[in-house]
């Protein structure tokens, strides 16, 4: 999302990431990857559960991404923070998601990833932001 941040902000959005660790751990990961938007911690996975995000089986987590997209699977593997995966607050099988929440706190868009490489295109997010602004 770092590279799409300007486009998202131009459409009226604000990028905020939520990670599985504490706030301090989330800040450390953000610094490691050069993330300049806010990154919050969710060590008990309350946000993940509230968005009904799925847990991947080992096949879907480790094998399927390489079968469907070997290059993308390898890129994700190279970006993986394996030290964080041994953190007791980290669940490596927990899949991610993208949500858009309006200024009143209502969930207006949600994408629940079905695999590690599954994120919505930036055009989908920008369309959702524009629809909210109308």
List the defining traits of the structure above.
alpha+beta; globular; 134 residues; two-stranded antiparallel ribbon
Specify the overall morphology.
globular
Order of helices and strands: HEHEHHHHEEH
- The structure class reads alpha+beta
Biggest sheet architecture: 2 strands, parallel
Q: Rg, please?
A: 15 Å
Strands ordered across the widest β-sheet: 1-2
The number of helical segments is: 7
Give the fraction of residues assigned to helices. 40-55%
Low-confidence stretches: none
User: Quick check: average pLDDT?
Assistant: 86
Tell me the fraction of residues in β-strands, as a range: 5-15%
What is the number of strand segments? 4
User: What is the number of domains?
Assistant: 1
Oligomer: single chain
The rounded distance between the terminal residues' Cα atoms is 23 Å
Describe the protein.
By secondary structure, the protein is an alpha+beta fold. The chain has one domain. The protein is 43% helix and 13% strand. It has helices at residues 5-10, 23-32, 46-50, 58-68, 70-79, 82-85, 122-133, and strands at 17-19, 39-41, 97-101, 107-112. Strands 1-2 form a two-stranded parallel ribbon. Helix 2 (23-32) links the parallel strand 1 (17-19) and strand 2 (39-41). Helix 4 packs across helix 5. The protein starts with a helix and ends with a helix. The mean pLDDT is 86.
